[in-house]
Amino acid sequence: MPGMLGLLLQLIIDASFSWARMLIALFLSIVISIGIGILAARSKRAGRIIIPILDVLQTLPILAFFPFVIFIVVATLPNYIGINAAVIFLIVTSMVWNIAFAVYESVSTLPNNLIEASRLYGLGWFSRMRKLYIPACMPRVAEQSILSWAVGLFYLVTSEIFSTGSAQYTVRGIGTGIAQLAFSGSSLYYALGIGVFILFVVATRFLLFRPFERYTTRYMEPQQRKVQVREVWLVRAFSGISSVHVPRIRMHMKRHARVPVPRVERRMRLRFSGFVGVLILTLALLAALFLTHPYLASYEFITLESLVDSFARVWFAFIVICAVSVPLATYIVFMSKKSSHYVTLFQILASIPATILLPAIAGGLAGVPHRGEITSLAIFFISGLWYMVFGMLSSARTLSPEVFEVKRSFGVRGWRAWKGVYIGALLPGMITGGITAIAGEWNASIVAEFFTKQGISGTSIVSSVGTGIGRLLDLSLANGNLLLVGIALINMTVMIVLIDIFVWKRLYRKIVSTWG
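Predicted structure:
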């Protein structure tokens, strides 16, 4: 028993180290997101550059870049400080993207009359940031911070214990602790480690993110309420002006009111032009490499073979995700009377990363044929499921009350309800959730397709598939073949960009034209 108590205390201390890194990473992510999000929203020229870059970067498996980060940071800073800075940097790169998009969408959809009024009454750049832009984006920042925290936890476990070639880097944290307990041979100790992790997740949910809900409730209210909230923001922004000017401000708002461009449509237009440029540049780079280095054709063949196998796994897992998430979201939105309780539960479950469950999944499948394939599909499923669920739940928040009233008044049930109400109501959320779910699966590929006791790029294999882009990246990192790593990342980026342009973008436009 004393040994158990000592282990419990050690795990709590380890979790405290990890949570300190997570809090620093979240703070940095919010600060960075507010800066680049507002810049992209208020400057068309900057938006054309920033938005496509963010879209590409958020889909890349960031763990593949970790050796470069370690090499640069550790070479620059002292060893212990450098590896901690590298871990925090990795977590920031997993958190920042969706918060930045949330800031961009919130600020870009502010009515022009608010901006014009702020200029009319002489608010400077700093005052507009502090009193208008930041309050406008805080509801979405608070909402997306919860999701970013869950994404960051996914990479926390792997980033705290990482090897590349003969060098192994380890920092103290709950990820390292659970990794050691997973292979200690004691299921009880391993379960205790997961229990401490979940305890910290629950405490974070209620002590840190619950206060944020006072912002998110404002965002969830109907559109009419949003207009009133924006007016309150404006009045607060001009709080230093004499009260006699407030009626003039409101008249100015009504006189110059304009309908804002739908935020996703505006983002789509920016993405298309930027993606075409990135695609042309990438193809030109590949062509130049193959012409100057003919042996790279064999690398390209290996990469394409691996990419096809991973593509099949990712989309098979996505089909299973849809089969589970659509009925689940439909039940919560249209049938359950305790939807808020389910959302809280799902937020907690979504914060438990698949990486700490991977040893248990692989161990439970010991002796089962194709264990590596089944394990990878399970990790893909867990990595993408919550994006789909929360995407549809978020879409449901904007539904008009008439949708629910029509269903109740006319008693629509069965297939008619699915065809006429449920699918149409949740379809926009399915698309936005699908985009992020697929991106989450690709990010998880480097862990799902090859995992060792040293995290990734180690030698003691826990789970592995036959071929796959994640496995290829891991083995290339372990062998120090950075050229093959670069070719694999370029091919993956091109594929993701093409799918985004020719599949997701067209699907979204079709849905908007049909159901909008």
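Summary: The first strand starts at residue 161 and ends at 164.
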